[in-house]
Every structure is written in structure tokens, then in C-alpha cells.
Amino acid sequence: MKFSKKDIQHIANLARLELTDEELKIYGSQLSDILNYIGQLREVDVSGVEPTAQTAGLENIFREDEIEEWDEEEREAALNQSPMMENGFVKVKRVLE
User: Which domains does the chain possess?
Assistant: First the structure.
């Protein structure tokens, strides 16, 4: 599939990319190659292949949360690494407004 310069510029604008004329040529060519490859993949007969999301047989493994108590020395060492403390707690910037 061949893209016009206008098409590539439109796609670049959607992606918030500012491209030079040379980059438009390069990316236009690459995008055409990618879509041609996808076209080849569409021609493959997959009628006997069952759809799958992954092939490695991965499974989620859940475990119970376990509370591990730290001794006072470990706790102090961890808290001393914080740049801001207040009343024995780590102080962080507000993330919600």
C-alpha cells in the first residue's frame, strides 16, 4: 500500500510528531512496508488454528500476603533514606488534587 505525503503528515499530526520532508519519505516507506507485510499475513490459511493469547503456558500464581516485621534498626535504616519525614512517616508530594 502506498501512502501519499498528505496521508503520512496526517498520521504524524495524530501522533503529535513533527517530521521533516526527509522523515516523511522514510516513515512513509516504512509504513507501506509494514502494511504490505500485514497483507501477506492475512493471506495465510489459519482455518485449523485455534486462537490463543499466549503460547508459553503461563499462569498467574497468587500467594497470601505475609506481614514481615522489621526490627527497629532495619526500620530506621529504611526511613532514613527518605528525603522528607514528618511525625515518623515518609512525607510525599500530593498526587491527587
Answer: 5-42 (1.10.20.60)
Report how far residue 76's alpha carbon sits from residue 88's, in angstroms, rounded to the nearest whole number: 10
CA distances in angstroms from 3 to 32, 43, 53, 59, listed in the order given = 7, 21, 31, 42
Predicted confidence at residue 40, as pLDDT, reads: 93
The pTM of the full predicted model, rounded to 2 decimals, is 0.47
DSSP for 26-48, written as a single string: HHHHHHHHHHHHHHHHHTS--TT
- Would you say 1 and 35 are in contact if contact means Cβ atoms under 8 Å apart? yes
User: Is the pLDDT assigned to residue 82 strictly greater than 80?
Assistant: yes
